[in-house]
Amino acid sequence: MKSSFSGFYKLSPQERLAAVVKETGISEEDAKKIAEPSLPVELADKMVENVIGTYTLPMGVALNFIINGKDVIIPMVTEEPSVIAAASNSAKMARMTGGFTTSFTGPIMIAQVQIVDVPAPEFAKSAILQHKEDIRKICNDKDPVLVKFGGGFHDLDVRIIETKAGTMVILHLLVNVGDAMGANAVNSMAEAVAPYVEQITGGKVYLRILSNLATYRLARASAVYKKESLSKTGDPVEGAQIVDKILEAYAFAAADPYRAATHNKGIMNGITAAVIATGNDTRAIESGAHSYAAIKGRYTSLTVWEKDANGDLVGTIEVPMAVGLVGGATKTHPGAQAAVKILGVKTAAELAQIYAAVGLAQNLAAIKALATEGIQRGHMKLHARTVAASVGAEGEVLEEIVKTMIRDKNVNAVYAKELMEKFS
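Now predict its structure.
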């Protein structure tokens, strides 16, 4: 399969979908789930409460990605112009050095059990650790199906924390959730062990809930960007200057939480769009990512950018990635099912690594634009199309309005309406 196409953006949506079908081998039936509104109201009514209809967002595909030596076409769902184009352009630059290399630490989720009113916290901690095998059995008995497929209780950890409400003992159950996101599995185990934990600690268990700060479930990606690939003309001298500018931009984000917030939002532009496409939990991924950015006590960049001995730009990202292929919307939403087939993934680990690569690509595109021409130039061109469409412009009239708004550096709905009257 190839993920690099010449002139893909010039094709109609129907032609683009046909090209994706040809490359990925998905069925015509799956293609229909993407081409047409894929979530019937009857199915939506079974997914959430008080359903009155459905809401549709654009699905595009990020191109040019090579991940661990394999071409991947990545479905992305987003309302924001420039996100998909930026990821594709960044991935194209990375192809020169073989694309993205990724890894995954494993599908281990954390369930927290909060124990309060403990008479002797250190003694309670010791008791929990000593009864690890009993706790293992309680957890695994709660989900024999997960155990059958190689998952289940993995380990435990105990922390003593001081809070405004007093000293608390916090039990972390570490659970291998396999190809599931895992929330239901770990929550059920936390509830199952609560009575036993109260018995051996003499305390009272309150909260029993997973943590979205999935520090044992990390996806990593890295890439090398040749300095000449960063220059539009392929000039290595200009490319070297761009490398230095990007490093200055990264240093700003690494040092300043105000900048890091927007820097990481750009990363999540890509990750969240890919997560939505496959029906995974965007809120879990985003909360985990932003928490991880502050895990050392200060909010900072999720990516690291450096210069290698060659003078080329090297980037890495490490981010919690609690995603699954079984259960939830991934298994019920027809469009999400089709997106998974386009990706061609068989495990949640593969899925997590793709998301990490998208985040790194998205970040490079954003900081390169900021460090060179500014973020608005490319973004506003795409935004202008949205504005023109919002006033009812189509075809040649739309293109003329876009061109005029960009030329006049005046992209807004009021001016678009004036131009609509002029060109119609």
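The chain has 17 helices and ten strands.
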